[in-house]
């Protein structure tokens, strides 16, 4: 328990800075040199950026020259998806297909919707009750004219981990030149991935989901592919992402990756998720939505008879912070798209909450929070029965 009696369990939305990250960034505040400058202040920062690329590339089986820094996950998804489509000749695009899933993050979904409204052939893949892509349906719609497939590697709301290797094999067996992209913002450092083994051509990553700073992310781009830049200007990042590099953020991102290299973190996350699942299922009419083999960092649960938002604010009063789903969808009209896509009944949807962990979440705090959540569910149900 912290001094403020706060139990923060919304790390899938954003996570607090790890002390090691904070220390690294504090030391880096004086590194003001522009990495594009020709004198030593700039050259030294350029070298630091290249080392950070090596660190990140090593975690996904990529080459350092295939890593490009961005402002975060949304820019990364837009950069790769738009970059592929806008680099395709109009006459080819008019007879091409692009494919994604029905459970994508808005940063992917809304881009596909935009292109669908522009007349491009878009296929939305169905998923099963646990959020896994229907691979038979995928084989049926994957064609030689498909130029782009985007599949979220780890779902941000329910934690489903897709079989990216099998999906990649299907794609490349039908069209080797089709670009395979995965939004891996929720999976990076939490669930190992090798982009070469999975035939992935573009991968999106983000710092603030792994106890790093907000406002910085990275993409992997297979060096065999060319895409059209989203931003034009000074030509930084080999012309793919113009703009002076965020050295402070990049070094914080690298520090977070180094923290998460510790395998004990993933072990602890699995233990906390298992503990939470066991405790919540002891409460009547609570259904665990997340698959057991899903991300160790995300647990989605549905509480029958209690609205998720009511429970959220009731827990906030006791210092427990959770969410009812994706933070990026909380203010949008189209909410609960993922829960609807997996076929969850309306009476369960309205009571769905998301609990998520990070490298700084302590088991003792998780146990205390699990007990408080169970107590608040029972308390709210008693109030409903009185009404």
The CATH topology of the largest domain is: Aspartate Aminotransferase, domain 2
* Name of the CATH superfamily of the largest domain: Type I PLP-dependent aspartate aminotransferase-like (Major domain)
Mean pLDDT: 95
Write down the overall geometry.
globular
CATH class of the largest domain equals Alpha Beta
Count of helical regions: 13
Order of helices and strands: EHHEHHEHEHEHEEEHHEEHEHHEH
Outline the structure in words.
Helix 1 (19-28) runs antiparallel to helix 8 and helix 2 (40-60) packs parallel to helix 8. By secondary structure, this protein is an alpha/beta fold. It folds into 2 domains: 7-16 and 263-386, Alpha-Beta Complex (Aspartate Aminotransferase, domain 1); 19-260, Type I PLP-dependent aspartate aminotransferase-like (Major domain) (Aspartate Aminotransferase, domain 2), CATH 3.40.640. It has a 7-stranded mixed β-sheet with strand order 2-8-7-6-5-3-4, sandwiched between helices. The radius of gyration is 21 Å and the shape is globular. The chain is 40% helix and 13% strand.
Observed structural traits:
387 residues, alpha/beta, Aspartate Aminotransferase, domain 1, Aspartate Aminotransferase, domain 2, 2 domains, 7-stranded mixed beta sheet, 3-stranded antiparallel beta sheet, 12 strands, globular
Which helices and strands, and how do they pair?
Layout: E1 7-8, H1 19-28, H2 40-60, E2 67-70, H3 73-86, H4 90-93, E3 97-101, H5 106-117, E4 121-125, H6 135-141, E5 146-150, H7 164-174, E6 179-183, E7 202-206, E8 217-221, H8 247-260, H9 263-281, E9 286-288, E10 298-303, H10 308-317, E11 320-321, H11 337-341, H12 346-349, E12 352-356, H13 363-386
Parallel strand pairs: 1-11, 3-4, 3-5, 5-6, 6-7
Antiparallel strand pairs: 2-8, 7-8, 9-10, 10-12
């Amino acid at each position: 328990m912290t001094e403020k009696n706060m139990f923060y369990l919304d790390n899938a939305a954003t996570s607090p800075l790890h002390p090691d990250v904070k220390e690294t960034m504090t030391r880096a505040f004086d590194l003001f040199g522009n990495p594009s400058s020709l004198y030593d202040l700039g050259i030294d920062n350029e070298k630091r950026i290249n080392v950070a690329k090596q660190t990140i590339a090593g975690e996904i089986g990529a080459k350092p020259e295939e890593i490009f820094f961005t402002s975060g996950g949304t820019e990364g998804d837009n950069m790769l998806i738009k970059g592929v489509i806008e680099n395709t000749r109009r006459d080819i695009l008019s007879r091409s297909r692009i494919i994604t899933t029905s459970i994508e993050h808005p940063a992917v979904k809304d881009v596909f919707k935009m292109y669908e409204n522009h007349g491009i052939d878009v296929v939305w893949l169905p998923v099963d009750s646990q959020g896994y892509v229907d691979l038979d349906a995928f084989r049926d719609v994957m064609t030689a004219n498909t130029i782009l497939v985007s599949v979220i590697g780890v779902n941000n709301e329910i934690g489903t981990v897709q079989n990216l290797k099998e999906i990649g094999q299907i794609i490349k067996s039908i069209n080797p030149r089709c670009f395979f992209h995965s939004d891996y913002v929720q999976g990076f450092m939490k669930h190992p991935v090798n982009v070469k083994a999975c035939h992935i051509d573009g991968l999106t990553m983000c710092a603030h989901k792994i106890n790093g700073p907000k406002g910085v992310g990275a993409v992997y781009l297979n060096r065999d592919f060319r895409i059209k830049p989203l931003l034009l200007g000074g030509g930084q990042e080999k012309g793919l992402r113009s703009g002076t590099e965020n050295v402070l953020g990049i070094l914080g991102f690298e520090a977070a990756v180094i923290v998460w290299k510790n395998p004990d973190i993933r072990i602890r996350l699995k233990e906390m998720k298992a503990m939470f699942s066991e405790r919540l299922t002891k409460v009547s009419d609570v259904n665990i939505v997340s698959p057991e083999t899903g991300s160790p960092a995300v647990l989605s649960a549905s509480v029958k008879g209690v609205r998720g938002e009511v429970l959220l604010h009731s827990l906030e009063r006791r210092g427990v912070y959770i969410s009812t789903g994706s933070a990026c969808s909380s203010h949008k009209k189209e909410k609960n798209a993922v829960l609807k896509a997996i076929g969850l009944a309306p009476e369960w949807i309205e009571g769905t909450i998301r609990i998520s962990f990070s490298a700084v979440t302590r088991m003792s705090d998780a146990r205390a929070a699990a007990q408080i959540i169970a107590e608040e569910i029972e308390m709210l149900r008693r109030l409903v029965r009185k009404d």
